[in-house]
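residues and backbone:
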Amino acid sequence: MFERSTKSNRGILLGQDNNALVYLVAINLLVFVLLTFIKIIYYLSEIPIEFFYKQVFDWFTLPAMVDSFISKPWVIFTYMFTHDSIWGLISSLLWLWAFGYILQDLTGNNKLIPIYIYGGVAGGVVFLIAVNLFPALANHVNTIGPLMGAGAAVMAIAVATTTLAPEYRIFPLINGGIPLWVLMVIFVAIDFATMAGSNAGIAASHLTGGAVGFFFIRQLRRGKDWGAWMNDFIDWLNDLFSPDKKRPIKDPKENLFPKSLGIRKNKTSVTTQQKIDSLLDKINQQGYQFLTDEEKSFLKSASKEDLL
């Protein structure tokens, strides 16, 4: 299975353009800061904190009752960026960074956000179904708290990353590195341990997020990118609000090829170029990790000879 050196030339920096991981972290932080600021205003104004949750916070979280959800359907998206506890926020962002860094390093910038959103939305839908369908939960739905936090979305990213490259090594100085699947087991164990005493709807939500991440990668291996339409929509919005800025048309193969290889595309012989294009197409459809050792060696040699 795929193993990759952790010494990548491409660091995920805060200033890097189109960095999906930084965007997700920033949105989670901004929502938390905004809600905390409003909460402080309520406190300093001596307004009972219950009013803050009823008048503000509840408009961001996913309620257990269907009729409440219907009155504010946008919360199926906002809940996955909403945290009430600083420790809950820190935990979510640490795991998001741990798995998101690896996923983005392997697949580029255009897979992370779709997986996050798919996992969060699917987890939210299953939460609603679970707490309203199963008798043990439905009989107490009025007392079940709203769903909030990035748990299901991060679980989707964690499972997607592990499915993509379970033998990816982290902490290489420790006996040659720890396989990624070990980190996944630790994450799942901690995640479910922190839900002890909570309602089963949260567990169902997180499990659903994990299933979404798994099937996203399975479909990607078959050449079906569930996130393509989302990225196209984002590009369309960018063009809509920036009509004077025309983006150059790029070969998608260039975006999918691992940047850490430092490959550039120049003219070369027809036969060699056809083979290169064929391998780049394979990366486009399946991912770099599914190349054979011979194919990887060929591309690395071509890169060193400045043929790409």
Notes: Residues 2 and 194 are 32 Å apart (CA to CA).
